[in-house]
Amino acid sequence: MHFASGLLLALGLSFVAATPVTHSHSHARRANSKATACTPEIKALVAGINKNIDIQKQELAQTKVISEAQTKNPPDAAAIKADQAKLVEIVKEGAAVRANNQKIAPAGNAALPGLAKVANAQAGELKIAEALTGKTATDAKSLASLTEMFTGGIKQNQQNAKDAAGNCTTA
After folding, report:
1. Cβ contacts of residue 57 below 8 Å, gap of 6+?
2. Rounded CA gap, 5 and 8, in Å?
3. Whether CATH 1.10.390 fits 35-165
4. Fewer CB atoms < 10 Å away: N or C end of the chain?
5. Cα–Cα distance between 165 and 45 in angstroms, integer?
6. Which UniProt keywords apply (predicted)?
């Protein structure tokens, strides 16, 4: 009897562990594999935020190109100037995409505060990128700051994409 009771207990616990628990709380819905699909507006917002992340990765890569160009001996001043102009254009492109994301975000969407943070950061990034001189001595600190800012922007936008989707799925 002892063995049979233990077996029944084990089977009962297995059944309880395998039975899904449903709650009306948002945390439970998020974990539910049958989450609702996002609206077309939310899908567009998440796609726009992801596009901005791709642009921020380009900003990082271009910052590295500039840093490496400045350390060449002798540095190619014309190439550095062209690389800096390209960085400024990439930053402007990212700002335009973010501005559109703010425009298309539904009122009250949870991503809006994070998008505002990105807007403020992009304004600072643009000022720094436009102020680059092409000289390692003066630009090294600015390039390091830009790298940190772009990395932080990527993290913020990753959170923004999650916040934008909330409990729905974009797949």
Report:
1. 154
2. 5
3. no
4. N
5. 8
6. Signal
